[in-house]
Amino acid sequence: MSVERLPVDRIDDVVDVFAEAFEGYPVMRCTVGPDGDVAARERRLVRLFVTRRVARGGPMYGVTDAGAGSLAGAILLTLPNEPDPPPEVAELSAAAWRDLGEETRLRYDAYTAASNFFSSYGPHLHLNMIGVRRAHKGTGLGGRLLEQVRALAEAEPGYSGVSLTTENPRNVDLYQRFGYEVVGHAPVDTGFETWGMFLRIG
């Protein structure tokens, strides 16, 4: 199974992977709140993240399980120099927040304010999301996806590295094993913590 760039028409597959991988994750669970169909609301939030990022030019990469014919893991990136967002980005966001509610939007805004760690790091890739289906946990697929991100950053001479955030303290050690260092840490007032991590290259 090789890591390949995914076309835009694979958005639904990427949403499926991330919705499974991030079920109950602190950002998702605390943002959507405890009411209603929590799993459906988390999935709606994931769809917002993916479609909004892709509409702004963010690339998706993934690994397909040839035997099952389905996407086994995926990553979603932010490039350092994005064009101005097209009008549909605002429309996507407005529609999602109408569905999810104003309190949900405010909780997410609190998270984004707390996790703003990278404004001084110069041009770099940002790893928005990385996810592996439960059936592929422990197979090394996550590491292969992280290696792909590093290779993409190293291929661009103007990039200083790769940034990411995590809200699971167990992930801090994992990313450190791949060369990331903690560059920021903050509580989020909706009840969890966030760590900013950076992989320096060059």
Q: Please tell me the overall pLDDT.
A: 93
**Structure summary, number of beta strands:** 7
Quote the distance from N terminus to C terminus.
28 Å
Which regions are unreliable across 5 or more consecutive residues at pLDDT < 50?
A: none
Q: Looking across the biggest beta sheet, what order are the strands in?
A: 1-2-3-4-5-7-6
> Per DSSP, what share of the residues sits in E-state strands of 2 or more residues?
15-25%
User: What portion of residues is helical?
Assistant: 40-55%
Structural class: alpha+beta
| Helix count, DSSP H or I runs of 4 or more residues | 7
Q: Rounded to an integer, what's the Rg over CA atoms?
A: 16 Å
Query: Sheet with the most strands?
Result: 7 strands, mixed
The dominant shape is globular
What is the ordering of alpha helices and beta strands?
EHHHEEHHEHEHEE
